[in-house]
Amino acid sequence: LKPRLLVSACLLGQRVRYDGRLLPAYPQLLAWQAQGLLVVLCPEVAGGLPVPRLPAEVPGGQGELIWRGAAGLCDSQGHDVSQAFRHGAAQAVQLAQQHDLRWALLKARSPSCGNQHTYDGSFTGTLVSGEGVTAAALRLAGVTVFCEDQLADVERLMLDV
Ligand code: SF4
């Protein structure tokens, strides 16, 4: 079997989150991983950021603008980390192309991985419609991006192949 789905590493219980916290792994994802169906990546760690790290937010949910070269994605102390986020997103695109992946299942609301909403850049817990940098980069590369709330949709797609 060859890989079909790019997945956020934190959804598989890997210690990659900004706060160093482990999320419970999704059993279905672990099963697919054991079958060799997944390519697993944390874009922020791949981009060179440590664990733990300061939280960061995409201004206005505009992940696409950051991907296209804009500055302004800052951590909670005001350091611009746009470059590291782009670097991680580029690795996600490269992996998707290398493995000919059409789908990604990424962590909701993340400044890298969020596909529908992100926090707005004010560090006040405010969500906006928009997407993270990696989610935008993958979408622009022709990959359909889902989040864990859409796992049932991805399961249907995986059954059809
Ligand atoms: Fe890494 Fe994405 Fe998970 Fe954040 S949401 S820890 S960037 S895989």
UniProtKB/TrEMBL annotation:
Pfam families: 2-thiour_desulf. It comes from the Bacteria. This is Uncharacterized conserved protein YbbK, DUF523 family. It comes from Atopomonas hussainii.
